[in-house]
Amino acid sequence: MNLVESQRTFHKIQLFKKILTLGSTLSTCGCSHFTSVSNSNRDNSISSSSSEQTLNNVAIFWDLDNKPPKSFPPYDAAVKLNKAAQRFGLVKYMIAYANRHAFSYVPPSVRSQRRDRKTLNELESVGIVQPDEPYTCGVCGRRFYTNERLVNHFKQIHEREQMKRLNQIESARGKKRVNMVAKYAMKMDKYRNEARNILTPKVGYGLADELKRAGFWIRTVSDKPQAADVALRREMVDMMDRRRVECLFLVSDDSGFSEILKEARLRCLKTVVVGDINDGALKRVADASFSWQEIMIGKAKEEAGKVVGKWKDQNVLKKLVWRYEPEKERKLYYNEVESEGSDMEWVSSGGDCDTLLGKENDGEWWELESRTNDVKRL
């Protein structure tokens, strides 16, 4: 009896294994009838959530001639601006236009810092002022007791090394050039990060380099008046015509862009303006507006969620609300009235309505009813 029972259990185990293998093969072939309801609901919820989380494409347009980051570091301002724009959607384009005067301009705050640094270097070289801690070179680690010696060391050694690397990369071709770029990548990044803090930019205060480091595409235009505005408007219109973005993020106080923003709203695009003029023409036209102070302190990033929520509610209400437009209704039904106009004119001129109804139904109403009854009996 034990042998028979063991054989039965063995057969049951084999049958169970076959069922499992059959279910796995059916599921791989696409016959997903064995999937549970919870799994299907979970897949549906994931697909619905992914469809709801589709973000709008955002493009940042920066008019550097009109709104340069004078009172803020360029890199920090660009990063804060990008983070604020990301709350409105996926930032795909970051474009800045300016002429060469905007890049050579030095703000008063940067000038005062340079003057203070120059006087401090003179006092350190004489020995009147001594730093609390020695100046350390971030590339090689050497220490100096005056900032002037650190700058001279950086220019004589590390700047020359950087120029040699760049010349080697420029002279190389093909795979050799790719290998050289990979070989010197870390050293070049280390040099750039340290040179940003030690060396003074030769032109301006490094606006173009800082914005490029933040991810902006910089375009220098001619020195003609309004050249940057014209180029920026052309770029915005091109983006709208090709339907690349759903939200325009403009950094400017120039009222000349108000027509572009109106055109964007007519094309059902969302518009956001960053500027310091509270009652400006751009802020009256745009869907949302922020100041530079709100961008830098992070208030714009917090308010962006509320603005996007209002936009979503407005889109839902537009689909639900029915509006009566008499002109549209009149145009819709005017053709039908025109087609029936000949009959109406005939009646208004004194014609007989019986002829319109036909001559088959001539007679009194009781006679017509009796005829219909006779017909039904037949």
TrEMBL record:
Source organism's superkingdom?
Answer: Eukaryota
| PROSITE patterns reported in the protein's UniProt record | ZINC_FINGER_C2H2_1, ZINC_FINGER_C2H2_2
Q: Does the keyword Metal-binding apply?
A: yes
Q: Which UniProt keywords apply?
A: Metal-binding, Zinc, Zinc-finger
GO MF annotation terms: RNA nuclease activity; zinc ion binding
Show where the C2H2-type domain sits. 135-163
Gene3D superfamilies in alphabetical order: Classic Zinc Finger
InterPro entries the UniProt entry points to: NYN, Znf_C2H2_sf, Znf_C2H2_type
Q: What is this protein called?
A: C2H2-type domain-containing protein
